[in-house]
């Protein structure tokens, strides 16, 4: 099918724009040599001024000069009535373009002149010469070798040089490079045409006679075709043998016929999938026993490193999996990514996979094997599976705090809705990764709202503030610590001592953080006297001293240091109180902390020291 459309072109010689009619084509069928069958070939666009035909080529400056001389040459101007495709091929030849590119241009010229036999023949002979030059060149690219070789054979066939064509195809058959995928099928098809003396353009087949018979479930044609044994194991352009095609179509009758005729039960498709893989994928319980009997090996491996058992698990076919296991399929074999059966099962949040996992855990001894990414089955279940999977794995001996190479445990990367389950099963909420961060702090730094919210629901990282009635209204301990009276604060702490170290829900700050940030000395003293934790951290591991240092509250800093707070405390960004004082330009606090032994050379996560911050603020 083709539709004619008008497009604008630019002549590289004359530098003018001009319109031309071109075909927007979709091809239902290609010939062996690549010709679109049933297509009317329109002339190539040509410049109305110089008559040049340039196709879609890109030109270098040196080529452009050669092109100008060539186009305006008297001989070229006198040949403007010659077919445009022929002129384009001549142009490429003159420019010394790649032999494959030039050969294709001459071949397309042959297609466009099919109604002029002598011209078509001359064009084919030219393309044949260029294609042979290309194949003999050390620069020939491997991805084009078969295509060009088959074109050579088919051009010889259409030139009625049948002996040469047959000899060429036999050489292709012997070439190990061409003994893979669908190459043998195409060679054999072309060879058959040659031996029949067929020189007409012939369609490029998608498969052989057996493929066609299986596809149409034509048992009579199948029975006739299986007598030709070479057809049994050929691969079609979809990468399938007739047997694999039959299995993929759930055609058990055809599959049995092919097997009885001698089809190889181990011959894989182009992705390495054997008939067993396809039967497992299709949940074909009728054919699987026959394939197992004929193939002997229950563990063939495809290009992804998967066995039929892996495929059965991945496609949720437990009965097929059971049949393969009973036939001796390996339970410990890993795929190309290092995943074993447990890894694969745990990739699905599905009750049926939970049942399969429960059965497999009774058969598999080591539940902590890692894949190539360092992930255990529990890691996979935490990221993709369910709480019940986690429970089953832990019950079978899976290590709940197993670390990846970055030091993170499942809590760091699990689905947010599984955080509570992991904690319930005993995951260490305080475990630090290689950066010294807990799972919660890591979530905070990454701004992972879903994970932060999940952690917050545990109550370990703050709770909604409790409201107390005082003389001038209703307030929380945090509000009173920041700006209220000491009497009100003392009354609240006497009434509910747990408020001393309570953490609010937003940032995980304690009353001591609030007092330090607000420069409320009396509240701070009272909290310290009551035993408040002077090194309590908020969600970002910042202590009250960090707050006081960055705010410039000198007296608060002194009170906290007198209470033995840690002057070297690092927050989640590796910042010490000295860093904060320096960054904010609070020289007095900086000097005071230095006198107490604070290090001005400690580097934060960005590699900066407190001293460098101070220099910046001084400047």
Descriptive overview:
- Among the domains are: 1-56, no CATH class; 331-455, Alpha Horseshoe (Serine Threonine Protein Phosphatase 5, Tetratricopeptide repeat); 462-533, Serine Threonine Protein Phosphatase 5, Tetratricopeptide repeat (Alpha Horseshoe); 556-618, Alpha Horseshoe (Serine Threonine Protein Phosphatase 5, Tetratricopeptide repeat), CATH 1.25.40.20.
- With 619 residues, it is mainly alpha-helical.
- It has helices at residues 61-71, 74-78, 84-95, 99-112, 117-136, 142-158, 162-174, 183-195, 209-215, 219-225, 242-248, 252-261, 275-281, 288-295, 308-314, 318-326, 341-345, 351-361, 377-384, 387-395, 410-413, 419-424, 439-446, 449-456, 477-483, 486-495, 511-518, 521-529, 544-551, 554-562, 577-583, 587-595, 610-618; strands at 2-10, 17-25, 467-470, 473-476.
- The protein is 49% helix and 4% strand.
- The two termini are 74 Å apart.
- The strands form two sheets. A two-stranded antiparallel ribbon has the order 1-2. A two-stranded antiparallel ribbon has the order 3-4.
- The protein is built from 33 helices and four strands.
- The longest helix is centred in the first third of the chain and has 20 residues, at 117-136.
